[in-house]
Design brief:
Blueprint lengths: L1 H14 L25 E16 L9 E16 L2 E12 L7 E12 L2 E7 L17 H4 L4 E8 L3 E11 L9 E16 L8 E16 L10 E15 L5 E15 L10 E13 L3 E10 L26 E16 L2 E12 L5 E18 L4
Antiparallel strand pairs: 1-2, 1-16, 2-3, 3-4, 4-5, 5-6, 6-7, 7-8, 8-9, 9-10, 10-11, 11-12, 12-13, 13-14, 14-15, 15-16
Length: 383
């Protein structure tokens, strides 16, 4: 009975144009654009990201806590050719209420662009820029695991979009009591139907088949660790339908729905479930005044090393680390707004209440983000 009530509620929300689908994180992403007009120029770039996210969680699956601080990434940018960009900078992560910086790390990228594909070595266009759904990639990694370093291949045509990446997360040196860690995956989207409207008030429609996966490996042959090898993979296959409106109030309606799977390929199991699956349903709308999102998640033995903590069937909490709930079912509502204060400076506001449908108690998170991303000309090298 609960399931039919849920479907009815989702249908009503979609019909009333007061709902939202997969999160739109575009203003929060950091990319490495190659601009032919900047060839043979040295530029200074700055990416600044301020965050305040308060999780008022009281369940046994995901911890409640507050993330409050900022990231800075100043860098020098050099384009020796119209198709090549080189970045070198430093990443600083400050948590308010702590002494010093949580992390100070160099950033270095070389990106080569060729027609409809690109190859990046070093610090990647990673994190939220991949475009993963939250059950595969945790939104909070933009605050807690910002940098990815390795290799990335991206391609975009009229019908196909691909982002394949490899992040070398932990280097292992001979004799260390540790394990190397490698993360990677791919985000692909096939456009099945796209109809552009005609005229000033015309609407457009798009149907997409997304396939996303992540994989993680921990191990090595030169370590002193007693831990067994770990190899896990998560995959999502979905169908996305969106309709854009050229109107004053209503901008877009869409529904994005996915079936997910998890599998542990390790010889010796370290995780509580060897395999699992999930269902992730979204409906939504973009409007002039408010973006609203309604998501339904049901997981069965689902574990994700890189994904959001709210989508796990095994606890990630500090006080209940061994708690398991094989079938985990939640309903999440998100109220979101992006405000452009001045050029390149955005304020993002979000309120995200959710209910565990097996124990209906209202929990929520609220967050504020400031994003500033710019670069400007410094000089041209002498020839």
């Amino acid at each position: 009975m609960r399931f039919f009530k849920l479907i009815f509620a989702i249908t009503c929300l979609f019909s009333s144009a007061l709902c939202y689908g997969q999160l739109d994180n575009r203003v929060l992403t950091q990319t490495i654009p190659v601009k032919p007009e900047n060839a043979n120029e040295i530029r200074f770039g700055l990416h600044a990201f301020g965050f305040s996210k308060n999780n008022e969680y009281f369940n046994k699956i995901a911890d409640g806590y507050t993330l409050f601080g900022y990231h800075l990434n100043p860098k020098l940018i050099y384009q020796p050719a119209p198709t090549v960009r080189i970045d070198a900078g430093i990443f600083l992560w400050k948590d308010f209420g702590s002494s010093g910086y949580e992390d100070i790390a160099p950033t270095f990228s070389v990106k080569f662009l060729k027609e409809n594909w690109s190859l990046t070595f070093g610090t990647l266009e990673g994190n939220l820029a991949h475009g993963y759904i939250e059950p595969l990639y945790d939104f909070e990694r933009v605050m807690l695991n910002r940098l990815e370093n390795g290799l990335q291949f991206k391609m975009q045509t009229h019908r196909l979009k691909v982002d394949a990446w490899l992040n070398w997360a932990n280097m292992l040196y001979r004799g260390e009591d540790d394990q190397e860690q490698v993360d990677g995956g791919a985000v692909t989207a096939f456009t099945l139907l796209e109809q552009e409207g005609r005229g000033n008030l015309a609407d457009s429609i798009k149907l997409t088949l997304p396939i996303q996966f992540t994989a993680q490996h921990k191990g090595g042959q030169i370590d002193a660790s007693d831990l067994p090898l770990l190899t896990v993979a998560n995959i999502a296959v979905g169908l996305e339908l969106e309709k854009k409106y050229n109107r004053k109030v209503l901008h877009r309606l869409y529904t994005k729905n996915y079936v997910l799977g998890y599998k542990d390929f390790s010889n010796r199991l370290r995780l509580p479930y060897e395999q699992g699956h999930g269902l992730y349903l979204n409906v939504g709308a973009d409007t002039k005044y408010q973006d609203v999102m309604l998501s339904y998640w049901k997981g069965d033995g689902y574990i994700t090393e890189l994904g959001g903590k709210l989508y796990q069937s095994a606890s990630t909490t500090f006080k209940n680390p061994d708690y398991l709930q094989e079938e985990w079912e939640v309903l999440i509502l998100r109220l979101m707004k992006d405000v452009e204060i001045v050029d390149n400076l955005y304020l993002t506001l979000r309120l995200e209440p959710f209910i565990n449908l097996d124990d209906p108690k209202l929990e929520f998170s609220n967050s504020i983000y400031l994003t500033f991303d710019t670069d400007f000309f410094v000089t041209k090298p002498r020839r």
